[in-house]
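Re: that backbone. Tokens:
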């Protein structure tokens, strides 16, 4: 019976002509109600925005630093190669084809013993000495994380005498990226928790201040979304303004990071600054709105 009533209600509602002017007035009243709530909060607005801006600034600076660090790690990963030394009499092309079949291998470059010996003789000024060097295959892996897997698959191939790569550098890169990623996740969680808690407490104060007004609106049959929306908009406003303020310190670290990339001849990440700014605005606004929504569910039974 209830389902049929709800269905009838929805059907009737669809056929009621929409008064766009009336809906525009309602939207205007909702926005003005949110503005009035912000005004009622008074000096507390400054405390809320300042605190949230500090939290988001920490997140933005760390995020920007992480983007540059990831670029450095990728560039170092690109120069990480496995050197495969072949036994005398082994066909380099056969071993090269087998290595190319291994997963995560990007390319294999052959450095013949004659080429290596010619370069070494020129550098050291050696003459009339028999070539002691083996044919070498330089194996490029797609990611530093996969270098151990590829290394272990190449090792048993027939004709491979010895192998080597900058193992310590690869391990340090993996540890560094793991620490940075873990720290980034930790900062996001802390930022979300602090931001939502601040907004939650603020909206609770607004709800308490408007308690009688909200009760009257309920008795008048005002819809729940009309009561909830201004409060959610207030939280989103706090988050957005805080994110805008948090964007400003990014310019202070942008120049040193750019200089660091130039010094090491490593190109900076593309659109890194824009990515951080957009992320800050989205996260700040979302966290503010979510904090308001959770506060409404907890303290306002509508």
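Recovered sequence:
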């Amino acid at each position: 019976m209830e389902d049929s009533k709800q269905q009838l209600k929805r059907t009737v509602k669809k056929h009621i002509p929409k008064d766009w002017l009336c809906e525009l007035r309602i939207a205007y009243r909702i926005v003005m109600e949110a503005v009035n709530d912000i005004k009622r909060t008074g000096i507390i607005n400054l405390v809320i925005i300042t605190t949230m801006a500090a939290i988001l600034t920490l997140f933005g600076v760390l995020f920007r630093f992480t983007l540059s660090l990831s670029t450095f790690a990728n560039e170092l990963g690109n120069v990480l190669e496995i050197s495969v030394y072949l036994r005398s009499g082994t066909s380099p092309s056969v071993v090269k084809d087998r290595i190319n079949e291994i997963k995560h291998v990007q390319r294999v470059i052959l450095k013949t013993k004659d080429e290596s010996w010619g370069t070494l003789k020129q550098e050291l000024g050696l003459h009339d000495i028999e070539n002691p060097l083996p044919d070498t295959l330089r194996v490029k892996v797609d990611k530093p994380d996969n270098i151990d897997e590829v290394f272990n698959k190449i090792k048993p191939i027939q004709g491979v005498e010895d192998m080597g790569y900058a193992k310590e550098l690869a391990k340090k890169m993996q540890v560094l990226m793991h620490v940075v990623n873990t720290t980034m996740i930790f900062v996001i969680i802390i930022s979300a928790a602090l931001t939502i808690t601040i907004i939650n407490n603020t909206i609770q104060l607004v709800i308490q201040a408007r308690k009688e007004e909200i009760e009257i609106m309920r008795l008048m049959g005002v819809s729940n979304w009309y009561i909830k929306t201004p409060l959610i908009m207030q939280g989103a406003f706090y988050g957005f303004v805080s994110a805008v303020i948090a964007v400003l310190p990014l310019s202070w670290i942008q120049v040193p990071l750019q200089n660091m990339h130039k010094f090491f001849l490593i190109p900076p990440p593309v659109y890194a600054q824009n990515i951080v700014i957009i992320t800050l605005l989205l996260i700040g606004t979302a966290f503010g709105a979510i904090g308001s929504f959770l506060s409404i569910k907890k303290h306002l039974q509508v």
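The chain has a mean pLDDT of 78. The first strand starts at residue 81 and ends at 86.
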